[in-house]
């Protein structure tokens, strides 16, 4: 059952604007697509991964340099890079024995920038 296929015994109110409900229902993404999107957003919920992404927004970097920058073990950084790479948020290239990481595409940069703008706007509204 998709999340918008509501069983009548669970609904505790009547539709007031059926045309709006029908219009919106027709535009909701498929559940599988929404699950994939939710999984992608989960990747951004870890501050270490965000630090790595922000570092890679500035420059292509190897694991050792990221480790020094963030004050973390090479193993910890490698683990997070592996997760980011498997999720197509980060790509890599080999130059001899060194592997350099960078953002997979401009979408990743945009997501980070928009998320930060939202957080800063919310902080400013609270002050």
Describe this structure in words.
This protein has 6 helices and 3 strands, in the order H-H-H-E-H-H-E-E-H. Strands 1-3-2 form a 3-stranded antiparallel sheet. A hairpin with a 2-residue loop joins strand 2 and strand 3. The chain has one domain: Winged helix-like DNA-binding domain superfamily/Winged helix DNA-binding domain (Arc Repressor Mutant, subunit A, Orthogonal Bundle). With 127 residues, it is mainly alpha-helical. 61% of the residues lie in helices and 11% in strands.
Approximate strand percentage: 5-15%
Count the strands?
Answer: 3
Low-confidence stretches: none
Rg from Cα:
20 Å
Work out the count of structural domains: 1
Shape: elongated
Q: What is the level-2 CATH architecture name?
A: Orthogonal Bundle
Between the first and last Cα atoms, what is the distance in angstroms?
43 Å
Total DSSP helices: 6
Structural class: mainly alpha
CATH fold field value: Arc Repressor Mutant, subunit A
Task: Please outline the helices and strands.
Elements: H1 18-27, H2 31-43, H3 47-58, E1 61-62, H4 63-70, H5 74-86, E2 90-95, E3 98-103, H6 106-126
Antiparallel strand pairs: 1-3, 2-3
Helix pairs in contact: 4-5
Jot down its keywords.
mainly alpha; 61% helix; 3-stranded antiparallel β-sheet; 11% strand; 127 residues; Arc Repressor Mutant, subunit A; single chain
């Amino acid at each position: 059952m998709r999340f918008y296929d509501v069983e009548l015994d669970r609904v505790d109110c009547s539709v007031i604007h059926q045309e709006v409900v029908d219009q919106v229902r027709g535009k909701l993404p498929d559940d599988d697509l929404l699950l994939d999107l939710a999984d992608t957003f989960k990747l951004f919920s870890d501050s270490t991964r965000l630090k790595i992404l922000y570092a890679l927004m500035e420059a292509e970097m190897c694991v050792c340099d990221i480790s020094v920058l963030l004050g973390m073990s090479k193993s910890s950084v490698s683990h997070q890079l592996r997760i980011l790479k498997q999720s197509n948020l980060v790509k890599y290239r080999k130059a001899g024995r060194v592997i350099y990481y960078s953002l997979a595409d401009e979408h990743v940069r945009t997501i980070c920038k928009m998320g930060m703008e939202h957080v800063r706007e919310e902080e400013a509204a609270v002050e």
